[in-house]
């Protein structure tokens, strides 16, 4: 074991513990009050079944006699020591979106691979086993695949595995622990599992665990998986695991697959958000991939297709005018899909007449692919906008979240222009049925886990677009809390949305109350909700004061400063304030976070994400030039990406602003 993985924790924490069926002692260590309030109970309860699941999945025993989790204010992660230390809010919450801790712990103990994405992928398997009603496996499309697509479609991306000469300095090492490493890694491994089949994938991993405590690289894993394939009748691959996966690991980016249902022609092309961008990084594979395509025709699942060259004819994909083709079924592959216009029209017709026929994750895929294809000038922007019309009838979380993530791009571009009013009117019409649906089935707005995220979207979007009754609802809840601070009647599911809307609608009184509650918060998750909501105010002097607080560790902890600035930058009033603040204090922020903090690149992304004008681009380039001597450390790539994204937005706006405006006007009339 590497010496840097040894960890000691010296504290006055309390703990709770229990042994699993095989005698492994699981312990949760934290502040005395957190333990006494029962905040560790769920973590203790859920760790044991997750460990049991992975023992069965990998066909091997957990390698240690104990597993400890401890909350430490400044998170560190000595992964393979038998003790996992992490921030309090990630260990303790009663209802949560993800269950990464125990799964990462087990996977990091066991998997002999240098692919960071392994833990990100397998955490969903453990979470899905422990909480099967939460639909965690489907959510990989949101939290890994679509996240990875966003940065892997830029020329400034990088391969999952990089050459030694590219990684020399601490900043370059820090840059490796990013969205590509974790989210793309998880998405590519999910694709591998899909085309191998889950049993073969698990069998290969099980064999690889016999080398768990030795040195290894990802190519060793390909060897074990290939042996599992060779030993499994009925599983046939067009090339070896090495040959297939090298194209996904050793070159950056991903393809867009174009299917012409008039002829059956299937082709691939390296997908770039800026189609005229020049790719400087060379690839020995010429940016072509071996692509496994699962697909369906009308409502019938078809045999998997492998696209092994630039273009090929696949006659079963030639369909009549009454049929449609849907590719990347269940979003099993790491690629986008485009169709001929006729097939797009038939898919849109199916969504509006009976969207349940299309799997829920593919409804999200259609939305996300269409908007990004439009951003890349591959399809017309109005075609992408039309994919949102069926949302009047959608009640599932994943499609709504995919839609709002893409519409958020429109918010960035248009919330300072005349387009915004028409856009708000259209979205108000679309979300009103969803808001009323939750109001009708649950008068007190408390639902079980599987629906809570859709419920949050309904409340948040309804309030921001002015649906009647929404803002009054949130203001009244918040007012009741202000009148009785010791009795918060707002359901935990809805607090982030309620806090933000109430503080945005209020003034100094509401903000100061929120600040007091933030300072008194004893539950970390509650503190995060309040810290984020405080950035929602529309009062400039409050936002400027809040920015100043980020430089005072007595008010905002050091590890929370960059995310707090990001929250403020997401506010249309706060964006320019945050940008000016960071520029004015760049030397301070670089000294505090620039060389070793993974959050530093996120700070640069957050304060520049609204940039879309030539003036803002010139400011960005000036900022790069003025601070060249100080440098940008682990944020260097993020700054390059910000310039690239801003350039693409300027070009896109010049071509699309007017048709987008006219479409929203016509659909909101």
TrEMBL record:
Write down the Pfam families for this protein, in alphabetical order.
ERAP1_C (PF11838), Peptidase_M1 (PF01433)
Tell me how this protein sits in the membrane: Single-pass type II membrane protein
Question: Where would you say this protein principally sits, based on its record?
Answer: membrane
Q: Where is the Peptidase M1 membrane alanine aminopeptidase domain?
A: 117-248
InterPro entries to which the protein is assigned, alphabetical: ERAP1-like_C_dom (IPR024571), Peptidase_M1_aminopeptidases (IPR050344), Peptidase_M1_dom (IPR014782), Peptidase_M4/M1_CTD_sf (IPR027268)
Q: Which domain of life is it from?
A: Eukaryota
- Which GO biological process categories is it annotated with? peptide catabolic process; proteolysis
Q: According to its UniProt record, where is this protein located?
A: Membrane
Needs which cofactor?
Zn(2+)
Tell me if Hydrolase is a UniProt keyword of this record.
Answer: yes
Domain (ERAP1-like C-terminal): residue spans on this chain = 324-646
Enumerate the GO terms in the molecular function aspect: metalloaminopeptidase activity; peptide binding; zinc ion binding
Member of which family? Answer: Belongs to the peptidase M1 family.
Listed name of the protein = Alanyl (membrane) aminopeptidase a
Taxonomic lineage of the native organism: Eukaryota, Metazoa, Chordata, Craniata, Vertebrata
